[in-house]
Amino acid sequence: MSVSLYRVKFARTVLLIQLVTFVVIGALFALYDLTWGLSALAGGLAAWLPNIVFMNFAWRHQAGEPVKGRMAWSFALGEVLKVLTTILLLIVALAVFGAVFKPLGLAWLSVVIVQIVAPTVINNKG
To answer: CA-based angle 37:19:47, to the nearest 5?
Structure first.
């Protein structure tokens, strides 16, 4: 298996774990109150969707033979796009839809923690 294909599968696994994390957290908060559940889903989406945007951006700009500088710029621009998307989604969730801050923040933080912890756990598995 090529290294490139392995990295894509690895990234997809982390994204899937993040998806499951915020859906479960949203369902648990929905047991308390539906508004809280929807707020938690919004918070999870605010962390998860920018990761998908970043991955697609990085893979699209890595075409064929990556040039050293091209990969660095692709990563940097992808990170800027990711941060701006996160801020925009959080503003929309809080200001436009009136999401509750506590479940939104906890779900967002949980997805970010999974993003940090999951690669370590997956790499130490085998």
So the answer is: 75
Under the banding of pLDDT at 50, 70 and 90, the label for residue 126 is low
Q: pLDDT above 70 covers what percent of the chain?
A: 83
Q: Helix or strand or coil: residue 33? A: coil
- CA contacts within 13 A on the Cβ side of 71: 7
The better pLDDT of the pair 105, 123 is held by 105
Cα–Cα distance measured from residue 117 to residue 102, given in angstroms and rounded to the nearest whole number: 22
* 105 closest CA partner among 16, 36, 18, 51: 36
Distance (Å, rounded) from C-alpha 99 to C-alpha 93? 6
Closest Cα to residue 64, out of 4, 125, 126, 124? 4
Joined tokens for residue 91: 């503003």
Helices and strands (H and E) in the chain: how many: 4, 0
| Closest of 7, 120, 18 to residue 62, by C-alpha | 7
Q: Rounded to whole angstroms, how far apart are CA atoms 61 and 64?
A: 9
